[in-house]
Amino acid sequence: MQDFSFYNPTRIEFGAGKIATLAQLVPANARVLVLFGGESARRTGTLDEVTTALGEREVQLFGGIEPNPSFETLMEAVAVVRNNDIDFLLAVGGGSVIDGTKFVAAAALFDGDAWDILLQGGQNIERALPFGSVLTLPATGSEMNKGSVITRKALQAKLPFMSEWVYPRFSVLDPVKTYTLPARQVANGVVDAFVHVMEQYLTYPAQAPVQDRFAEGLLHTLIEIGPKALAEPEDYQTRASLMWTATLALNGLIGAGVPQDWATHMLGHELTALHGLDHAQTLAIVLPEMLRQRKATKLGKLVQYAERVWNIREGSDDEKAESAIERTRAFFESVGVKTRLGDYSLNAEHIDGIIDSLQRHGMVALGEHGDVTPEHCRQILLASL
Fold first, then answer.
1. Residue 122: Cβ-neighbour burial (10 angstroms; 0-12, 13-18, 19+)
2. Can you tell me the mean pLDDT for 32-37?
3. Residues 74, 111: one domain?
4. Which of 213, 315, 195, 337 is nearest to 264 (CA)?
5. Which residues touch 233 (CB under 8 Å, ≥6 apart)?
């Protein structure tokens, strides 16, 4: 196990009806900007619940944050914050809304061009507005971490940033709020959480049995409950388990003291920025071949994954690894997320543009060893057709 520092200040309020706790969680004298995505928050009544819980506080609303939150839209929210002396933000939605709110929290107090936050990965953030979240879509774990990913449409760039300044002060997790989600979003959430775990788990053996067993438990849980979450959308316990698993997948706990990969995510971001695919769709495309193309350096963990997660006991180490990769692909397909570029009308002619964009954004030495080059990524995409 590697040395590590672990810090997570986010308070979690979990359970049905917990939106009412906003009355105590948000400072009584706060001037609040509530940020949300489309009209579903209003249509389902969640927005009304939130504003009711906020009571007599001064509240303004900002809607229209995209599934891949755009720099352009978020800068409009920054202007609202600055022009109205907003001093507290509240994200109501899924990971995209929370990611966007993190950017607004930092950009509103940032001196200079806010795009520099993304160009420097958040290292230049020195302060941010306080904010909380009401989670309605379990997937990204953004409700309990310090990371965010923002798209600048004009540049076709999708870049991440991290900062301890943008941990949510609190997050409200009510599984009932997931009942009305479209099946596509639920399936995406299952895949997103699964790959988050894999990016921290499937690297190389690091003598970290606690983290390994924790990660494997989360993977087992997703495999067990993923199909049920789709088949029985109002099963409270299943949706509760999915919501909490997605949070634990990326709140920093299972990644503490172990090597991490994230090459699948970086390559996937380019697919979203250039071709508009859902984030989870890109992960489902990239991960199987990312594992296969890097099988030699990942073999120890691939065999462990095969045996412990998929109970594959027969065959050579190579055969176990191959079987585990195909079981992973089949799992993604089983919850309705396709795993080939061709499934999204992309072909070999699109690959050069993806690789050029990867290089332009400096993503040239990816993975836990820093040895995943653009040429490796090209071969991964070719194998994913």
1. buried
2. 97
3. yes
4. 195
5. 178, 179, 180, 181, 183, 186, 239
To the nearest whole percent, how much of the chain has pLDDT over 90?
98
Tell me how far apart the alpha carbons of residues 306 and 365 are, in angstroms, rounded to a whole number: 27
State the pLDDT at residue 230.
97
**Statement to judge: residues 257 and 115 lie in one domain:** no
Residue numbers of the domain that contains 248: 183-383
Collapsing DSSP to helix, strand or coil, 128 comes out as coil
Contact status, residue 223 vs residue 286, Cβ threshold 8 Å:
no
pLDDT value at 169 more than 90:
yes
CATH number of the structural domain spanning residue 241: 1.20.1090.10
Length in residues, the chain: 385
- pLDDT of 39 > 90? The answer is no
pLDDT number for residue 167: 98
Which pTM was predicted? 0.95
Last residue of a domain, one of 177, 192, 222: 177
d(CA 267, CA 381): 9
Phi then psi dihedrals of residue 61, to 5 deg: -115, 140
What is the domain-level CATH number for residue 105?
3.40.50.1970
Residue 366, phi-psi category: left (phi > 0), alpha (psi -120 to 50), beta (remainder): beta
Q: 177, 202, 217: which is the final residue of a domain?
A: 177
Residue 40: predicted pLDDT:
85
* Among candidate residues 95, 149, 144, 133, the one with its CA nearest the CA of residue 250: 144
Distances (CA, A) of 334 to 103, 192, 226, 306, 328: 34, 14, 9, 18, 10
Q: Does residue 203 register a pLDDT over 90?
A: yes
Pairing status of strand 131-135 against strand 147-152: unpaired
- How far from 287 is each of 172, 202, 203, 337, CA to CA, in Å? 31, 11, 13, 13
Q: What are the DSSP E strand ranges found in the chain?
A: 11-14, 31-36, 58-62, 88-93, 131-135, 147-152, 157-162, 170-173
